[in-house]
Amino acid sequence: MATELPFTDVLQERLGPARRAVRLGSSPRSRVWRVELGGVPAVVKQAVESADADERYAREVTALRLAARVTPPVVPRLLGTDPGARLLVLEHVEHRRPSPDWVVGYASALARLHAAASSAPVEEAGLPAWQGPVRADLDAFLALAGRLGVPVPDGTDAELAALLRRLGTAPGRALLHGDPCPGNDLHTPDGIRFIDFEQSSLGNGLTELAYLRMGFPTCWCVTDTPGPLLREAEAAYGAAWEAATGGAPPGDLVDACAGWLLRGDALVQRAHRGTADHLARLPEEDWTWGTVTARQRLAYRLGVVARLTADRDDLHRLGRVAGALRERMLGRWPALTAPPRERPEDA
Q1: Per-residue pLDDT at 346
Q2: With contact defined as beta carbons under 8 Å apart, do 143 and 280 qualify?
Q3: What is the pLDDT of residue 256?
Q4: For 319-344, what is the mean pLDDT?
Q5: φ/ψ (deg, to 5) at 95
Q6: Considering only CA atoms, which of 227, 222, 221, 228 is closest in space to residue 299?
Q7: What is the pLDDT of residues 251-279, one digit of tens each?
C-alpha cells in the first residue's frame, strides 16, 4: 500500500519526504495514509475522484482553517495542502477509548467548533449554507403516515410547512461539521478533535446539537443517550457556546430535532442519499445500517419528537402524528427494539 501514496513535489518541498506509509481505513470518498515526516507521525488524506471531489476537498480545507482559530484545539493541525491533487496533510492525533460520559466533552467541543465561524467575515468563512429538509421530505413523511393508516389532523401540512420555513431561516453562522458522528471525533488526553469535514457548512449550531437527542441521525452507530447525560451534555454545549461568543446559542432545538425526523435520507448511508424516497420503502422493506435497522431508526426518532412536541402549540399536530405512527409501527413490527445505550467499541 505504501507505493500508492501520492505525496507530491508540492508537499515534499514544504514538509520533506514521507516515509513508512500505511494505508488506513476510510470512506469510499477518500484515501488515507499514516506516514512519518521527519520521524513524526502525520496523516495524508486525498479526496477520491468524483463529480463533487473538488467541492468536498475545498470544504474540508476551509473548515480546518476556520477551526484552527479555536484554543484549545478542536481539530488536528493542518500541515500542508496540494489542491491540484486534492491532498491534505494533518497532524496525527492518537485516539483513545472514550469515557462513559463522553457525550459531555463531545458537546462542549462541538460548541467551540461551531463558534469558530461566528465572528469570521462572510468572505473568509467561504462555506455554503446548510441545507435543511425540503417540501419533498414533508410530503414523503405524510405519505408514510397515510400508507400505515395513521390519521393526519387538519392543519398538519401547514404546520410542517411553517417548520421548514423556520429551519430555513434559523439564525446563526456556526461552523457545522456536517457529519459529527462517533468515529469522526478523536478522544485525546487534551480533549476532542473532530475530523472529516467534507460536508461542512455554515448554519445553526443546534442542528448538530440535536444529534444527541435524535440518536446521531446521519451515523451508522445510532445510540440512545440516557436522560441525565443528555441534559449534562446540552448544558455543557450552552456553557461552551456562551464562553466563546458571549451569548446563548440561537435557534430552537425542538425544531432541529423535528427537522431530522422528516429526512428520509437520514435512514441510509451517504452513498445512497438522494437516490430514492427511503420513507416509502419502509412499509415493505427494512434494512440494517450499523447498530440498528431503518425501522428502528425511525421508530426511535418518532418517540423523541412526540415527547418534545407534546407542549408545543406550533408542533402539536406533528407530535400527534409522530406518536401514532410510532405506535402503529410497534404494533405492526413488534420485534423493533430501542437503539443501544453505549457507543460501539469501534466508533
Answers
A1: 80
A2: yes
A3: 98
A4: 97
A5: -90, 140
A6: 222
A7: 999 999 999 999 999 999 988 888 899 99
> Residue 272: its pLDDT value, please?
86
C-alpha cell at 118: 461566528
Q: Which helix (H) or strand (E) holds 125?
A: helix 122-125
> Which residues, 6 or more positions from 43, have their beta carbon under 8 angstroms from its beta carbon?
24, 32, 33, 34, 35, 76, 89, 90, 91, 92
Report d(CA 319, CA 313) in Å as an integer. Answer: 10
Judged against a pLDDT cut of 70, whether residue 21 lies above it is answered with yes
Q: Are 330 and 336 a contacting pair, CB within 8 Å?
A: yes
**pLDDT-derived band of residue 124, with 50, 70 and 90 as boundaries?**
low
Whole-model pTM?
0.95
> For cell 393526519, what's the residue?
152
Q: Phi and psi (nearest 5°) for 87?
A: -115, 140
Write the burial class of residue 157 (CB in 10 Å: 0-12 exposed, 13-18 middle, 19+ buried). middle
DSSP 97: P
Q: What CA–CA distance (Å, rounded) separates 269 from 302?
A: 20
Could you give the 3-state DSSP secondary structure of residue 89? Answer: strand
What residue has cell string 440561537?
250
pLDDT at 55: 95
Determine contact, residues 298/283, Cβ cutoff 8 Å. no
Q: Residue 244 contacts by C-beta under 8 Å, 6 or more apart in sequence?
A: 111, 112, 115, 118
